[in-house]
């Protein structure tokens, strides 16, 4: 059950990736079709873009139309242009919060991974301890981050330290449980070989079991990246005076809607980038070790 | 002792150890006054004078999660069927789903509040995250039927919709229920995130107000309720998934 709640997420991610790679209608074009005039080439590229991104295009069109139809003024709901203008005219407002959020997210992510892996190795050595700890870790996992942040704030104060502690707690669980399951996945024949050669515990951990766990550990990183970003944004929104979450809140409170929406857009882009980086890192590392 | 029984015994023992440690931290004040003994949290939860406050919040969050979950399940299955019946629309839907998943819920809040209001936002945040999970799991399930079955139906001249109903949908059910077990914790989380943006009632509101007013027992009780809810929904989804897998896989 503990493993399933982390790996199910991975199954959905995997399925999403496979869907993204399924061949679209554009894959049927022949080499002969490619030698037509440039207008047709442009048309085909446009068609490919529409086929892939039509929901996003539809939303970008629906947004101003919907504002206009409801008679909202720019003071209530900014259009795409207002948001873009604020982004271009005041990049300095966004730069520092982006850096803070990225720093907290990446720092917390790495620290949480480290804690999870170290604990995972220690726990793996004892079936009793891992049997005792895994269900408790599952309960920690189900605590909604919206409840975790206020509790941690009450414990550790409203500062940036609390944000880091929270990301570490969020990230530690997948790393921990996937390290344990990855280390346990070593085949019996490999274990026998190491036993026959009389290798010590350190050799078994660092030469056999930990390398075998690397794909699982990278999977944990990929699962955690979006969770970590969301956690940092939520914690910044509620607690600390820095970062994109804070910018979202203060802009909302001052009724600066262009800024609020632009901050939301920047947060989205940052999240998508982290998502992509974690996915690429996983693929590269797993390709290397397997 | 069978390994399954041993796992269960270890698990129960582990939870007991966790509770005992939490209790010791609380009674000794090791982490300060904001870590209460577990017995005090339990006393707060069982005190009838708190039931109205907690009950209202719980009812609000659960109904948002249930409504949003329902919308999400219907929308997710609907979009997956659309993508299966009209392959031209599929690449766009796949990418849009991936984008929706990567967008942090908090970033959507300003937009959602404007469109759906402060009370509707939690429902929509739940619906969005559930839609993504269900869409992906259903789509990959619809793709999972064995090639021979599909070829057989094509050879016999079945229309796409018939093949979908007879082959692909039954094959997709186990994956769909896999998705449901994953959606369970996401539902409570999504509802409480939505409640942070000005909802009047709900566990999410309670977390923040209890923190700001330094009502530590209330904060912990609300957190315990949220965890129990997530675990119950997860457990129910898991049982349903097991039953479906036994029948269809």
From TrEMBL, chain A:
In this chain the ABC transmembrane type-1 domain maps to 98-278
> Where is it chiefly localized?
membrane
| Membrane in keyword set | yes
Ordered alphabetically, the record's keywords are: Cell membrane, Membrane, Transmembrane, Transmembrane helix, Transport
Belongs to which family?
A: Belongs to the binding-protein-dependent transport system permease family.
Name a Pfam family for this protein. BPD_transp_1
Residues annotated as transmembrane: 45-66, 98-125, 132-156, 162-181, 216-239, 260-278
Q: Where in the cell is it found?
A: Cell membrane
Please tell me the species this chain comes from.
Nakamurella leprariae
Give the InterPro entries listed for this entry: MetI-like, MetI-like_sf
- One record GO biological process: transmembrane transport
Question: Its GO CC terms?
Answer: plasma membrane
Q: What is this protein called?
A: ABC transporter permease subunit
What is the membrane topology noted in the UniProt record heading this document? Multi-pass membrane protein
From TrEMBL, chain B:
Which compartments is it annotated to reside in?
Cell membrane
Answer whether the UniProt record assigns the keyword Thylakoid to this protein.
no
InterPro entries in UniProt: MetI-like (IPR000515), MetI-like_sf (IPR035906)
- Membrane topology per record: Multi-pass membrane protein
One BP annotation, GO: transmembrane transport
**Top-level taxon:** Bacteria
- What are the TM regions of this chain, as residue ranges? 7-26, 65-89, 96-117, 123-142, 176-198, 218-240
> Which intervals of the chain form a coiled coil?
none
> Which keywords does this chain's UniProt record carry?
Cell membrane, Membrane, Transmembrane, Transmembrane helix, Transport
Q: Name one GO cellular component term.
A: plasma membrane
In this chain the ABC transmembrane type-1 domain maps to 58-240
Q: Does the keyword 4Fe-4S apply?
A: no
Can you tell me which family this protein belongs to? Belongs to the binding-protein-dependent transport system permease family.
Name this protein carries in UniProt: ABC transporter permease subunit
Natural source organism? Nakamurella leprariae
């Amino acid at each position: 059950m503990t493993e399933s709640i982390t790996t199910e997420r991975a199954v959905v991610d995997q399925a999403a990736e496979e869907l993204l790679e399924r061949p679209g209608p554009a894959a049927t074009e022949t080499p002969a079709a490619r030698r037509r005039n440039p207008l047709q080439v442009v048309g085909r590229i446009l068609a490919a873009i529409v086929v892939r991104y039509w929901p996003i295009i539809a939303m970008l069109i629906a947004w101003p139309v919907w504002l206009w139809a409801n008679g909202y003024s720019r003071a209530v709901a900014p259009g795409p242009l207002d948001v873009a203008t604020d982004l271009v005219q005041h990049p300095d407002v966004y730069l520092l919060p982006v850096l803070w959020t990225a720093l907290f997210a990446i720092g917390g992510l790495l620290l949480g991974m480290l804690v999870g892996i170290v604990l995972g190795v220690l726990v793996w050595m004892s079936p009793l301890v891992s049997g005792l700890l895994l269900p408790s870790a599952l309960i920690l996992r189900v605590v909604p981050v919206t409840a975790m942040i206020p509790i941690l704030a009450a414990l550790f104060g409203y500062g940036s330290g609390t944000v880091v502690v929270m990301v570490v707690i969020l990230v530690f669980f997948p790393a921990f449980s996937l390290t344990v399951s990855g280390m346990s996945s070593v085949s019996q024949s490999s274990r026998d070989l190491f036993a026959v050669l009389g290798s010590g515990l350190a050799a078994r951990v660092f030469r056999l079991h930990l390398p075998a766990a690397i794909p699982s550990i990278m999977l944990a990183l990929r699962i955690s990246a979006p969770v970590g970003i969301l956690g940092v944004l939520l914690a910044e929104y509620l607690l600390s005076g820095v970062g994109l979450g804070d910018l979202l809140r203060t802009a909302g409170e001052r009724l600066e809607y262009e800024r609020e929406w632009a901050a939301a857009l920047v947060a989205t882009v940052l999240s998508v980038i982290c998502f992509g980086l974690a996915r690429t890192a996983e693929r590269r590392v797993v390709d290397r070790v397997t | 002792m069978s390994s399954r029984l041993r796992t269960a015994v270890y698990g129960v023992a582990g939870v007991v150890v966790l509770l005992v440690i939490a209790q010791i931290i609380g009674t000794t004040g090791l982490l300060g006054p904001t870590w209460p003994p577990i017995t005090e949290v339990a006393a707060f939860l069982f005190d009838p004078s708190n039931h109205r406050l907690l009950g209202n919040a719980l009812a609000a969050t659960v109904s948002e999660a249930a409504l949003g979950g329902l919308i999400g399940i219907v929308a997710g299955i609907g979009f997956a069927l659309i993508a299966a019946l009209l392959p031209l629309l599929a690449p766009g839907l796949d990418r849009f789903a991936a984008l929706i998943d990567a967008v942090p819920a908090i970033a959507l809040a300003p937009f959602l509040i404007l469109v759906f209001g402060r009370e509707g936002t939690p429902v929509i945040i739940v619906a969005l995250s559930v839609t993504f999970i269900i869409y992906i799991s259903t789509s990959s399930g619809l793709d999972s039927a064995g090639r021979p079955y599909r070829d057989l139906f094509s050879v016999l001249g079945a229309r796409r919709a018939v093949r979908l109903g007879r082959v692909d949908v039954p094959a997709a059910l186990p994956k769909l229920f896999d998705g449901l077990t994953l959606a369970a914790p996401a539902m409570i989380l999504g509802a409480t995130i939505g409640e942070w943006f000005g909802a009047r009632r709900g566990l999410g509101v309670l977390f923040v107000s209890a923190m700001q007013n330094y009502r530590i027992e209330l904060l912990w009780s609300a957190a315990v309720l949220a965890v129990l809810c997530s675990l119950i929904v997860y457990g129910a989804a898991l049982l349903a998934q097991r039953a479906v897998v036994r029948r269809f896989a």
